[in-house]
Amino acid sequence: MCDTTHATPHDAALSAPRPAPGRAVDPITLQPVDEVRVTVLMDNTIDALLVGDEHTIRAGFGPADTAAGQFETGHTAVGLLAEHGFSALVTVRRGNRETVLLFDAGLSPSGLVTNADRLAVDLGSLQGVVLSHGHFDHAGGLGGLAARLGARRMPMVVHPQAWTRRRLHTPQSTFDMPTLSRKALDAEGFEVVERSRPSLLVDGSVLITGEVDRTTDFEHGMPAAHQAWRGDHWEHDPRVIDDQALVVHLRDRGLVVLTGCGHAGVVNIVRHARRLTGVGPLHALLGGFHLTGPAFEPVIAPTVRALQDFAPRLIAPGHCTGWRAQHALAAAMPDAWSASSSGTTHRLVSA
What we know:
Pfam families: Lactamase_B (PF00753). Residues 93-207 form the Metallo-beta-lactamase domain. The chain is of the alpha+beta class. The chain has one domain: Ribonuclease Z/Hydroxyacylglutathione hydrolase-like (Metallo-beta-lactamase, Chain A, 4-Layer Sandwich), CATH 3.60.15. The chain has seven helices and 20 strands. It has helices spanning 9-14, 111-118, 142-149, 182-188, 266-277, 297-310, 323-332; strands at residues 35-42, 56-57, 66-67, 75-76, 87-94, 97-103, 128-130, 154-158, 166-169, 174-176, 190-194, 199-201, 206-208, 226-229, 234-236, 246-250, 254-259, 282-288, 314-318, 345-349. The chain is globular and about 60 Å long. The N and C termini lie far apart (40 Å).
């Protein structure tokens, strides 16, 4: 989703930062939790040889139980899938009570449920779905999830602009992105809740940011090729206004922030979460940072510097972060950086 097409001054103005000094006008009391587990059900990469540690569980190849006649036993191990998409299972524990949410659903109709099955994840335990934004590589697995859930109604939090029709348009080609349909989601059994402002879930212990304030001077959003349909014309859509993140306050540790693509700018997102909650420390930052391609590579260095200042204990970039940014983040924060991979579970526990 990157392009080297130059933006006009009008395009730049659309993505210009807005000042947001001080604390939020309506600060949010985010109830602290005792444990957060983030299981990456789908990511752009899969590495079955990654080694876990006391806070990270890695998925290997799994049992050799898939039929394959070319082997002597007639079976082979298939491991997990990877695709250009993102999905994470978020389990939040307060005391003895656990709540399980799905954050995004990956690219393909079958990828999410396939990996869940191979990880022995019970999708029937889900209590809600959150979409980070309307791009198709974060919503493609919803059909497969609905088929697995059957007649059960599942609440889903989305931004009202998630239904925006979008395309990638360059002088060489045009790609019309699949557009999310509320009517279809209703028919599949999802109870859609539209929120543009911050909202609290799970008895006040999970924050969905809603629209994110753009306050940095280097996170300018999507390049000119990314366009939205405005009813009678296509227009540069730098902001992806429906972009939102999931935030949890890990007791005595700080914020855990999960992004889908981070189209609002990952530094903007962290600033926004801190401002909304009044919680200063950033304990963990996970998800897509969207720093890949020539339009975003100039943003890597200031992003890395800003994230160093936040000093998270864990940083696990995935999906659209890109290999150059991964290398830069790993070099700058070697003790915090963790490789992302389909099947990885990060277990974060309060002090």
